[in-house]
Amino acid sequence: LLFLSETGGKDRRSGLILTIPLCLEQTSMDELSVTLDYLLSIPSEKCKARGFTVIVDGRKSQWNVVKTVVLMLQNVVPAEVSLVCVVKPDEFWDKKVTHFCFWKEKDRLGFEVILVSANKLTRYIEPCQLTEDFGGTLTYDHMDWLNKRLVFEKFTKESTSLLDELALINNGSDKGTQQERERSIDLNFLPSVDPETVLQTGHELLSELQQRRFNGSDGGVSWSPMDDELLAQPQVMKLLDSLREQYTRYQEVCRQRSKRTQLEEIQQKVMQVVNWLEGPGSEQLRTQWGIGDSIRASQALQQKHEEIESQHSEWFAVYVELNQQIAALLNAGDEEDLVELKALQQQLSDVCYRQASQLEFRQNLLQAALEFHSVAQDLSQQLDGLLGMLCVDVAPADGASIQQTLKLLEEKLKSVDLGLQGLREKGQSLLDQISNQASWAYGKDVTIENKENVDHIQGVMEDMQLRKQRCEDMVDVRRLKMLQMVQLFKCEEDAAQAVEWLSELLDALLKTHIRLGDDAQETKVLLEKHRKFVDVAQSTYDYGRQLLQATVVLCQSLRCTSRSSGDTLPRLNRVWKQFTVTSEERVHRLETAVAFHSTAEKILQECPEQPESFNEVEQFDEIEAVGKSLLDRLTVPVVYPDGSEQYFGSPSDMASAAEHIREKMKLVSLKKQQLRQPEATTPES
C-alpha cells in the first residue's frame, strides 16, 4: 500500500492510470479504501470524467486478495474505473480463474477486468505510459512524488489555515468602531504559523513544479501534463497569491496596530508627564512662595528650588524624547493621526513651557531676593562701621588728622548713600517681581504670602533708612565738632605763631634797633619808626589774645581742655611784657638822644662872637649831664620782670654809639672852652 499511486501515465483514452501493487503480506482493505479515496480526490473533475485504468499488480499476492481488491473497486470507484488490468504471475492462477471469470461480471462490476501478464500490458497501454516494472519507459520515482505530495499537502493545510486566520484578523480590522477593531485584533493578532515560512515553502514548491515542467524530470524525459493535475500547480499559485494578498493586508494591519500601540504609548507617557507636572510638580511650586529673611534663608530656598528643578528636569527629558517621537510620527504619519498627534504635542508643550516658565520665574525671584539680602547685609555692615566710628571719641593729634578723619567720615556716609540707593533699586525690582507672582499662582490666592514678603522688604528698607538717618544726624554733630576742633587747632596754631612773631619782633628790637642817630633829625625819624614798630607788635599781641580767647570759647563748646593754649597765654604775656620793657627802654634812649642832639646842635650852631647869657652855662652843664646819662644807659642792660637781663645789640655796637656821643660831647666841651676864653682875656685887657 505504500506504493499505491498515480504514476502520471495515461491509457489510450487519456484516462489516468492507477497502479495498486500488492504484496505477500496481509493487506488492510480499510487502509486501501482510504488510500484510494485520497488518490481519487487528487485529479480534477475533467480528468475523472475520462475514467481510470487500474493496474492491480498481483504478481506477489494471492488470488483471493486480488479478487477482494477488484470487488472493492466496485464499491469505491465504480463510476470512475473503466478498465482493471490484473497482472498475474505466469501459470499460477489458471485453476482458480476457472472458478471466477471477471468478464462475466462486467455488467455487475461496472468496469472491464482482464488478466494479463506484465509483458502483455502494452496491448492495452502504450509503453511510454508504463513504468519500468511493467516493461514501459515512463520515469516515475514514487518516493519523490510522495515527498512532493507531502510538501504540497502540508503547504495546502498550513496556507489554508493561515488564510483563514489572516482573513479573520484582516476582516476584524475593518470593523466599524475602534473598540471592535482593537478587540478583534487583540484576540487574533498572532497567526499559528509564520506567514514568511509558509510563503517560502510555497515558493520553493512552485519553483520545483515549474522546473519539472520546463526542464523535464531526471533523465531528460519530457514533462507529462499530469504533473499539473496531480501536483496542482495552479492551486499552489492561487494559494500563494491569496497568501500574499492577505499577508500584505496583515502587514498593514500590524503596521497600523504598531502605530496605534506606539501612539497609545506616547499618549500614556504624555499624560504621565502632564499629570505629574500639573499634580505633584505644581504642588511643589505652590508650597514655595517665601523669599527668606536673610542670605542664608534665601540660599536654603534656592537649594530647595534646585531639588525641585532636578525632579522636573527628569520629566523635561521625557518631554524632549516624546516631542522627538511625535515629530517623527508627524513627518511619516497618516492624515487621520495628524490631528491627534498635534493635539498631544500642543498639550505637552503648553504644560511643559508653563511649568518651565514657573520654575524660571521662581529662580529669578529667589536670585533677586538673594541679591536684595546681600545688599541689605552689606549696607548694614557699612552702617555698623559708620556707627562704630561715630561712637568713638575724637582725639586727633592735629588739624590734618581731623581733616583726614572728616574726609573718611564723608566717604563712608557717601558709601552708605550709594548702598541705600542700591537697596531701594533691588527692593523695588523684587517688589515688581512679587507683584507679577499672582499670574503664576495656578488659581491659588497668594495675597497672604505676598503681603508677608512685601512687608519684609519694605520693613528692611525702612529700617535701613532710619539707621542711615540716625547716622546722618550723628555725622552732622560729629562734623560740627570736628570743624570746631579744626578751628581750635587753627586758633592754637595761630596763637603760637603770634607768640613766635612777637618773639621775633623782640629779638629784632634788641639786635637791630640799636642806633641812636647822628643828629636830632635822624633820631626823631628813628623814634617815629620805633613807634610804628611798637604798633605792629601791639597788633600781634592783640591778635594772639583774640585767638586765645576764641580757643577758650571753643574748648568750652567742645567741653575739652586745650592741650596747648594753657601755656600759650603765659608765653604771650611774658614776651609782651619783655617787649614792652624793651620798647620803653628804647623810647627813653631815643628821647634822651633827641634831647642831647637838639641841645648840642643848638650850642654848636650859636655864634662864638655873641656869647650868651649865663643860661648858656647851664645848658652846657645840662648837656653834659644828659650825655653822661645816655652813656650810662648804653652800658645798662634791660631788666625784665622775671629778673632776666638783655642788652641792646653787641658790645661793639654799643661802643660805637657811645663813641659818637662822646665825640659830640667833646665838641660841646670845645665850644664851652671857646666861649670862656674871651671872658678870661677881658679883665687882663
From TrEMBL:
Task: Give the CRAL-TRIO domain ranges.
Answer: 1-142
Keywords recorded for this protein, A-Z = Repeat
Q: Does the keyword Metal-binding apply?
A: no
Classification via Gene3D superfamilies:
1.20.58.60
Taxonomy of the source species: Eukaryota, Metazoa, Chordata, Craniata, Vertebrata
Q: Which InterPro entries match?
A: CRAL-TRIO_dom (IPR001251), Spectrin_SESTD1 (IPR056804)
PROSITE patterns associated with the record: CRAL_TRIO
Q: Give the record's family classification.
A: Belongs to the SOLO family.
Q: What is this protein called?
A: SESD1 protein
Q: Name one Pfam family in it.
A: Spectrin_SESTD1
Question: Which gene is annotated as encoding this protein in its UniProt record?
Answer: Sestd1
Q: Which organism is it from?
A: Machaerirhynchus nigripectus
Supply one GO molecular-function term.
phosphatidylinositol-3,4-bisphosphate binding
* Top-rank lineage group of the source organism: Eukaryota
Quote the PANTHER family the UniProt record gives.
Answer: SEC14 DOMAIN AND SPECTRIN REPEAT-CONTAINING PROTEIN 1 (PTHR46607)
